[in-house]
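User: Quick sanity check before I run a bigger batch. Here is a single chain. Can you write out its predicted 3D structure?
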Amino acid sequence: MGITALLWAQITFHRYGPKIWQSRPAFEEGFSFTHSFTVDVSAPYYIGIRYRRFFRVTPTQGVPPDEFSAEYTITSGGTQVAHGDNSSDRHAWISNRDSLTRLLGPFDLQRNQSYDVSLQISHVDTTLASTAPTVMLVIDSLTEKGATIAGSFLSVAGFAFVVVGIFFMMPLCGFLIRRRSDWAPGDI
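Assistant: Done. Predicted structure follows.
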């Protein structure tokens, strides 16, 4: 039962995972990107630009420096829903082992509504262009309305079921092994 819950939680998390769509366009100065999409969950979202870079947080430098200037506009049915750039929130980053994702936003999107995103890059550091950045739409990991919290909760609950199952299975296996050692060859 615990393994079933864990697998169901993983499927739920991957269905409503953090990345909604992603694209690897040519990333250079003067670059412009447009994409049409819909979302399955009404929640806050970000435009994410991920690139290969290792960054270690230090007391003197808590956030990585911006290596590009970006501006985005999101429209729905010709009406502007969101507009911003990377100067608005300098602390919106996701740092992974060997990559950084700069988040632009947040902005609220509604379920099953069509959207168009337009992203313009006006300045790119020369070292960034060679890392083949990825542009993506990222759901806010702390959303209350979507399945992200539910997926996280179910992952933890599934893991707890597996751990509890292991603790119950260990004494049962010990009992069965002891019982088997008491068997005579003709008992089966």
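The two ends are 30 Å apart (CA to CA).

User: Great, the batch can go ahead then.
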